[in-house]
Task: inverse folding
């Protein structure tokens, strides 16, 4: 099955243009399936719908939640559809599979005053203060994903107009809006701190490490957590939490859901609709707290 998996991953990369992160996610699913089939001594050509259902059931017993099982099911469907289309299987055994309904887990968010506390706690007179503040500002002001921030390059920015040209999931491009404060913070970093981080082989990535290379996702996560700890915020702070806060605060301020969808780069409005549940939860809690018959 290894050859089929390798060929399929190449197809996702070259013909579909899907991200490395998505390719890795698919490979993890298919490697798990290959290991499971190996224990059964079953070649992939003999796999039927019952075997795939049993595999998903085992994954559930192993602790996968509904959202992860849904993603796993999608991976199986696209893989076996591809095998059937290539004539490597007589039929597609994954076609009848039904993906489980995802759990309605509401995204965590920060209160607006907590975001202000976090941002205002950073001393820009200290080394890397301007860089770290610019990172946090972009997560919150533009709703960037972690990968989008790490891949952001100088040529993708128009600070005069206040826009970023972002390449998001599936290599889809969108325009992200940057507000006045975030623009000022970013401009201050670019003019006053980034030049000191540049080395002979430095690329055009916006955010650089002390060695002159682009910041890795893990390093950005560390920066966010460290800055939150220094600000005295006990909650677990991570980049996507600031993106969730960006969307939630827009909705609370009266922004149209379609606008939020566009700003976040969601392909489907149903993905964005989770923030309406967050807003309803907030309304319920406020009513319960302050109304005499709440």
Result:
């Amino acid at each position: 099955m290894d050859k089929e998996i390798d060929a399929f991953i190449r197809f996702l990369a070259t013909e579909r243009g899907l991200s490395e992160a998505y390719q890795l996610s698919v490979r993890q699913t298919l490697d798990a399936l290959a290991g499971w089939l190996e224990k059964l001594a079953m070649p992939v050509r003999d796999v039927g719908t019952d075997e795939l259902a049993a595999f998903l059931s085992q994954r559930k017993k192993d602790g996968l939640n509904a959202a992860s099982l849904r993603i796993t099911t999608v991976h199986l469907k696209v893989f076996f559809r591809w095998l059937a289309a290539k004539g490597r299987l007589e039929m597609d055994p994954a076609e009848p599979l039904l993906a489980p309904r995802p759990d309605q887990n509401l995204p965590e968010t920060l209160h607006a005053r907590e975001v202000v506390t976090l941002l205002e706690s950073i001393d820009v007179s200290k080394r890397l203060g301007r860089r770290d503040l610019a990172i946090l500002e972009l997560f919150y002001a533009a709703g960037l994903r972690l990968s989008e921030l790490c891949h952001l390059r100088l040529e993708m920015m128009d600070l005069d107009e206040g826009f970023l040209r972002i390449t998001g999931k599936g290599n889809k491009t969108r325009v992200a809006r940057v507000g006045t404060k975030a623009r000022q913070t970013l401009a201050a970093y670019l003019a006053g701190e980034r030049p000191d981080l540049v080395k002979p082989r430095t690329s055009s990535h916006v955010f650089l490490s002390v060695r002159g290379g682009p910041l890795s996702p893990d390093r950005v996560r560390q920066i966010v957590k460290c800055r939150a700890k220094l600000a005295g915020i006990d909650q677990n702070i991570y980049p996507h939490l600031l993106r969730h806060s960006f969307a939630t605060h827009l909705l609370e301020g009266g922004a149209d859901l379609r606008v939020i969808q566009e700003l976040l780069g969601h392909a489907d409005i149903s993905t964005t609709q989770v923030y309406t549940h967050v807003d309803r939860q907030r309304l319920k809690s406020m009513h319960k707290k302050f109304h005499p018959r709440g």
Q: What stands out?
A: The CA atoms of residues 118 and 231 lie 6 Å apart. The first helix runs from residue 2 to 14. Strands lie at 157-158, 163-167, 173-177. The chain has 14 helices and three strands.
